[in-house]
Amino acid sequence: MDYSVLSGHYNFYLMFLSFMIAIMASFTALDLARRVTLTDGWRRKLWLTSGAVSMGIGIWAMHFIAMLSFHLTSVKAAYNMVMVGISILVAVLASLGGLFTSSRSRLTLTRLLLGGILMGFAISGMHYIGMAAMEGVAIRYSPGLFVLSFVIAIASSMLALLLAFRLRGNVPLFMHVKKVGSGIIMGFGISGMHYTGMAAAHFTPIPLENTMSSFTVDPFFLAICVAVGSGVILKIVLFTSYFADKRLAEQMAFNGSILEKAIDCIVLTDREGKVTEFNPAAELTFGYERMEMMGQPLIKLIVLPPFLANRSVVEFLELTSSGAIDNRIETQAVHADGYEITVELTVTQVSLHGMTQYTIYMRDITDRKLVEGALKESEERYRRLVDFSPEAIVVHRNGKIVFANEATVRMLGVPDTTFLFGHSVYDWVGEDRKEEVTAWLHAIEYAEDPAGPIELEIMKYDGERIEIEANSILIQIEGKSFIQTIARDITEKKRSERTVKQMAYYDGLTGLPNRNKFNDLVTHSLEFAFTHELLVAIMFIDVDRFKHINDTLGHPVGDLLLKELAKRLSRCVRDSDTASRLGGDEFIVLLPNTTRDQAAIVAKRMMDAIAKPFAIEGNSIVVTTSIGIAMYPNDGETSEALIKNADLAMYEAKELGKNSFRFYNQRMNMTAARKLALEQGLRGGLERGEFILHYQPKMSLSTEQIVGVEALIRWEHPELGTVGPVEFIPLAEQSGLIVPMGEWTLRTACRQNQAWQLKGYPPMRVAVNLSMLQFKQDDLVDKLKLILQDTGMSPEYLELEITESVAMNNQEQVIEKLQAIKQLGIQISIDDFGTGYSSLSYLNKYPFDTIKIDRSFIRDMREVTSEAAIVQSIIEMAHSLKMNVLAEGVETAEQVAILKAHKCDEMQGFYMCRPLSASSFEAKMLAGKPGG
What's the pLDDT score for residue 376? Predict the structure, then answer.
């Protein structure tokens, strides 16, 4: 390593960048000196501290970038982080001292010299500490240039302090130009100190030790990072100062607005008692124009109280114990027309631009004193009646309040009664009712018509809105007409009335109109439609599978779903339409003045809106709706008939696959009559033995042998013929008959299977469906034991099928019950897999033996369809869980081939055989196959 003195060169771009940072830091210093001066208290300390930090970082950034602009030959310098940090701290302290000095009220020569020396030494110290942070080189300095750099630093600091002090006031725009120019001068001064110090330095290379406190980096990249960071900080400070100035200007404008809009007289005077401001309220009260009073003595307006008669106005203004400062006193004042008025005044003393000024707040209380005098002359009991009345009593003239009792104070929430004097009664009334109140008071004053009480909403002092009932009369006091208003707060009464009305006519959960309100609206709508020969539509809406959501996710989630669903329904109708809730998951919509096509459009809009997922309590819930529509007058002329027929149409939409809408037609009455007949005959049919079982075989795909049957219930109705389970099972579930019906099915299927085995046919399992109500029975396990015992069938030949909705309801209890059933030796399968939750998250928790793939996947299954991929996934998933897989609804040879290819275990469907009676099944499927 060559230890000779190193030479180097500057990067012009980084030098220019350092100059820009220096100018920006200098301009910030000038601006912040002004900001510190304009504030006091904690805000002054905040500006002083934040300004020193931002300025210090700016000055340091200029120095650091300037150092990075200097490139030594043959040596790549590193920097000691500790020393760099110390240099930043010194720069901040230098800025703090400069801001503190320039923001003082006076800048003497001594303070200027002392501040400049300290700040100059601090800036020079920051520079040479930063130089000392360089590692890999030894530095020695030329004494002359070294001293010169300190002189430049001190001179620049003194210049900066002087400029900051001179330009710190609230200056006009052209002075900001001077501030920019001063910032440039200061920037060159600070930069000059740095480059003088750099010229004084001579660098000698030394070995560089790698330490944790050192770093090396590309100088140009580091300079850009420092410039951007410091620039952002300085801009933030400047913008903050700018917006603070803007807020100060806005505050001054706001104060001026207050002066203009104040209802009290506000008069400002100087220390000699001469008027310097006279607001509009004072002009109105005293009859003088503002310019007439400017510069006039205050004595022209007010008459000093007797106890101050020998004092001057100045003495009156400056007295604090017995005078007007911070005290509320009454005295006489002189109107421009020469007559005296009574005023109440208070004086506050302020210092503005270093000058003492007085603000006099005055209120004309002539009318109030008149009323008070009249009240004093009246009987004591009347006075007590007014003062202690629980109802608010206000006396006003030309809308201006001249008297108010304590009840008024409580009702309006104002500090005291005197606060109200001089206010207008209209100040408490909303804009939408002022015209009405004006007409009401006019009628009272001029007795045009008997003016009864009025109910209106007013605003209290704190902004709260209340409702009052007011009654007013005209009274005479010393020959002058006044209006006395008695008001009482009826907010709670009105709230109670609205609550009762809400409870009577609106649904408590969704806020929609209820059945009572809907019936009223329909009645009026039909009357109007009859008169004008219009069409009206009634839409009956039911949420599909809502009970399933309540059973699986709970009623609180179901209630939230209904609320969100009500909102979507409301957004689908016109303002003239009405969406109501009848109860449960049933809604009804009134569409007045519509057509059949328009009703269909609304129905489609509702179905689309409701089909979108609902995000509720962390669940994504998808529901559909079934909608029935009845049209006035063709489908009924009364609300009862229209609602009943819309309900019938809704049930047909539900029975035809749900998620659809239907218009009512006459045929639906026949369907309803059949349903009623089935409901009435269901219990008797069970007792009379009208139910039979059919059996559908299950075949092994690998051996093509029958391995079991599924027992399916049928109803041989004596009048209606064979009734399928699709019709009577929902009725049995609604009535609760599904429990004894399911028990009969279990017992009959087990007895038949045992009989087949006794005849010598090959043993096989018989599968029986369990309904949710049947599964919920506490004694289910005991009943299963009893049935097996009574029929003599071994448990291994019984298979129970449950749906996903049963499995997901109260999972812990379901799992516990399923395990108890498994302990009996009974097989368990999950039916219609793929139509509900269908996920491993619950399958691996349950003791299922078989998964039955729903027929909807098998029906559309082809070799390369998504259904085939889903079926393959289900089979692989089930096999991984050691479960058997059965495909339902197999109808074609192609489906059989695909299932075999995917290694499905079993199948059932019309491809093999339709469900058969016990005798037919025995003759067709079991004949010729005796067992051992």
Answer: 66
